[in-house]
Design goal:
This protein is 44% helix and 15% strand. Helix 1 packs across helix 4, helix 6 packs antiparallel against helix 11 and helix 11 packs across helix 12. The chain is an alpha/beta fold and 308 residues long. The strands form two sheets. The chain has a seven-stranded mixed beta sheet, with helices on both faces. The chain has a three-stranded mixed beta sheet with strand order 5-10-9. 47% of the residues are buried. The longest helix has 18 residues. It is globular, with a radius of gyration of 19 Å.
């Protein structure tokens, strides 16, 4: 505990509120991988922020928290968690409301901010796993997402979840589907048939990954009137609209046993490789807490999203 407290003090001393300082503070945990977890929160969700950071530290995962207000920044800096002040924390009079309708002006400003910050970090050359604060990290997803030699020992090409398939994706997304066991054989076909959940969302710093992240932000922050993004109330709705073909369901293709989607929306088909984050490894709350699918499938998930 004393060693951690000392390390936390050293980190907090270097945190000046800038993104650059936060990334510098997270760099040692990257262990040479150009990969970071990125989440956002305000002081009203201090318990969730503490829980997120505690599990990320325990897993040894490189992470940065974008503070939505000054209170969150001070709280996180005091604990030694890599953090910075987002544009909303620097704005006068902004307050994020607690409504779950995702339709208020306050929420839309938050969604515009965080998509812009994701695009900003990806533009630095880092692969980013954008992750909600109600996600609990059980182990570091970086080796799997980057398909390191150590990860290939567990997730080789003959395994149920080969990391090489995900390594080829410019963007990869989690699923709101309810059947982790069905996803093992169903792969991209099963994941594509349900709503994509932007609460766990991987962006690579490839040219296509950067373009998609930047366009995601533009479609959330300033959608063209009359476009398919106009009137969408959340970044998740915009994400799904970007990749799915219009007036059909699921509007995106996928084959059983594969983890890369096919037949994306015409804007991105052939210009983007979209992957599925395997549901048994990136579980939702029902799959983990209710079904205990990790036990029946004998898998060790990287993360659990407290949905459902």
């Amino acid at each position: 505990a004393s060693l951690y407290a000392s390390a936390g003090r050293r980190v907090s001393m270097g945190l000046d509120g800038t993104l650059e300082a936060a990334l510098d503070a997270a760099a040692p945990a990257m262990r040479g991988l150009r990969f970071v977890l990125l989440t956002f929160g305000n002081a009203a969700f201090s318990e969730l922020l503490r829980n997120f950071c505690a599990h990320a530290r325990r897993a040894g995962a490189a992470h940065v928290v974008g503070a939505v207000d000054v209170g969150a920044f001070e709280l996180l800096r005091e604990s030694g968690s890599p953090c910075y002040k987002t544009p909303l924390a620097l704005a006068t009079g902004y307050s994020l409301d607690g409504a779950n309708s995702h339709s208020s002006g306050s929420w839309k400003a938050f969604a515009a901010m965080r998509t812009g910050e994701v695009a900003r970090v990806v533009a630095t050359g880092l692969d980013v796993l954008h992750i909600d604060t109600d996600v609990v990290l059980l182990r570091d997803p970086a080796p799997f997402c980057m398909c390191t030699a150590a990860a290939r020992a567990e997730f080789g090409d003959a395994s149920r979840f080969p990391c090489s398939a995900l390594r080829a994706a410019d963007v990869a997304v989690s699923s709101d589907n309810m059947g982790p066991s069905r996803s093992v054989a169903g792969g991209a076909a099963y994941h594509g048939a349900g709503t994509f959940n932007s609460g766990i969302l991987l962006f690579r710093a490839t040219a296509a990954g950067r373009r998609f992240a930047a366009q995601w932000h533009r479609n959330v922050a300033s959608p063209e009137r009359g476009s398919r993004f106009w009137g969408k109330t959340s970044d998740q709705q915009v994400f799904n609209a970007m990749v799915r073909r219009e007036r059909q369901w699921p509007g995106v293709g996928g084959r059983r046993g594969e983890w890369i989607m096919r037949r994306l929306h015409e804007d991105w088909d052939g210009n983007l490789s979209l992957g599925a984050l395997p549901l048994p490894l990136f579980m939702n709350g029902h799959g983990y807490f209710v079904q205990a699918a990790h036990r029946s499938l004998q898998v060790s998930p990287f993360a659990v999203h407290a949905t459902y």
